[in-house]
Amino acid sequence: MLLQIPDVLSADEVANARATLARAEWVDGRVTAGHQSARAKNNRQIPEGSAAGREVGELVLQGLNRHPLFISAALPLRVFPPLFNRYEGGESFGNHVDNAIRQVAGTAHRIRTDLSATLFLTGPDEYGGGELVVEDTYGVHSVKLPAGHLVLYPSTSLHHVRPVTRGARICSFFWIQSMIRDDGQRTLLFDLDTAIQRIGPESAQHAAVVQLTGVYHNLLRQWAEL
Fold first, then answer.
1. pLDDT digits (tens, 9 = 90+) for 171-218
2. Which burial class, exposed, middle or buried, applies to 68 when counting CB atoms under 10 A from its CB (0-12, 13-18, 19+)?
3. Which residue of 17, 21, 108, 163 has the fewest C-beta atoms within 10 A of its own C-beta?
4. Dihedrals φ, ψ of 210, to 5°?
């Protein structure tokens, strides 16, 4: 399931994040790439563990925690500390699949990458090119979102970033270990939760809604890994 999630950060939060990142050091993006993806990666990013990265990363996590659509779709168990990248002057990232396991720098903590996320910090009118292109069983999807919006997709997906031909593309990127490992099961739960929410609060105590809610939680109880 590929899902666009709007307004994870407000306009003011995006502006504050960009101001903080503008004062930070940027290094070769290959520092966090695996063996295969390092050959395809050509960008810059904020070093893991930097003060600016931690500050803006906390802002991103707060935005995720208060966004019901993200919680419903991802069912997050662990979120990798957000990282930040920058593309300009023809920089790009060729076709690759994200590493299955990521270790948090400076710790013994590791997460399984069930979902990948890109949160846009620059608007589509600020740069040329730079689309995130994700391939899945339903075809090829080109994504270029307003600042503050996020795209969520399975980490098993082949994907790339097209060359940035004008301006600069700045994003946060990170991974999520979900309580539900299987993308098909996670999609079913999301669809069921969405349907229940659409029925509306006025019907919350209707017998059918109570039954559907029970089905949702019993499936979650059966499939969840904690």
1. 999 999 999 999 999 999 999 999 998 887 766 677 888 999 999 999
2. exposed
3. 108
4. -60, -40
